[in-house]
Specification:
Length: 264
């Protein structure tokens, strides 16, 4: 990928990225909209569901690799739709074959189809197996700081806690849990799930998250390409605000122009 130099890069699995906004490929009306929204978002990492996306298995269907060329994007296969560790592991192994040995994957093992909350027991089991098999695992998980710590300890390269249920658009519902995960992590922490609009993305970044992954908030918008551009700006602004350091909250006023040093 020919990315411009970046003074504040995101480092995942030894590779640097200038964009901290990761996007998905589901729910767009077609491949053209997927491509235009990905470009508008400035995304460099784009995730796709291995079970649902054509990478050349069916020559008669549109191919994701034509819309999102691997020389421009890091394609991140995910295990969406898997409800146990064995299925998730097989899905990642299939993705590695389809992507000529690429080892970076997004692991998600769901607990049920209603909440789409992660099954953390099965997630831990799958992560151990995948890491032992040479995969670099970015992992979707709950907002439990203890589980996040364990996933990092076994070798996951990024921790991706939900901020609210997948596709809910409820925004950041768990600031203090996220802060606890961020404060203790030595690998990137990226919010995955729950973002609904640009302010949600900015809040996630202002908390200190290293990035945000989203799909529904963009693909489900009235104008997905315009929303992708808005999310790009929000993630950038939130990161810059975090680095700048916000003022402390006060119960009372603090004059912008103090009385000390008045001329008259």
């Amino acid at each position: 990928m020919n990315a411009p130099p970046c003074s504040d890069p995101l480092l995942i699995a030894g590779k640097t990225y200038h964009s901290r906004l990761l996007t998905g490929t589901g729910k767009f009306k077609d491949m053209d909209e997927t491509a235009r929204a990905s470009a508008a978002a400035g995304a460099q990492i784009v995730t796709f569901a291995v079970r649902r996306m054509n990478l050349g298995q069916d020559p008669a269907q549109p191919n994701l690799l034509d819309a999102l060329p691997p020389d421009r994007y890091t394609l991140l296969p995910n295990t969406a739709g898997c409800y146990n560790a064995a299925d998730a592991v097989r899905t990642c192994q299939l993705a590695r074959e389809l992507l000529d040995g690429a080892s970076l994957v997004k692991l998600e093992v769901l607990g049920d189809s209603k909440t789409l909350f992660p099954d953390v027991v099965q997630t831990l089991a799958a992560a151990r197996t995948l890491i032992a098999d040479g995969f670099q695992v970015m992992v979707y998980t709950s907002d439990d700081p203890i589980i996040a710590r364990e996933l990092e300890a076994i070798g996951c390269v990024a921790i991706m806690p939900l901020a609210a249920p997948i596709g809910s658009g409820l925004g950041i519902q768990n600031k203090y849990n996220l802060l606890e995960i961020i404060d203790n992590a030595k690998v990137p922490v990226l919010v995955d799930a729950g973002v609904g609009t640009a302010s949600d993305a900015a809040i996630a970044m202002e908390l200190g998250c290293d990035g945000v992954l989203m799909n529904t908030a963009i693909a489900g918008a009235r104008d997905p390409v315009a929303m992708a551009g808005a999310m790009r700006k929000a993630v950038q602004a939130g990161r810059e605000a975090f680095l700048a350091g916000r003022i402390p909250r006060r119960r009372n006023a603090s004059a912008s122009s103090p009385l000390d040093g008045l001329f008259f």
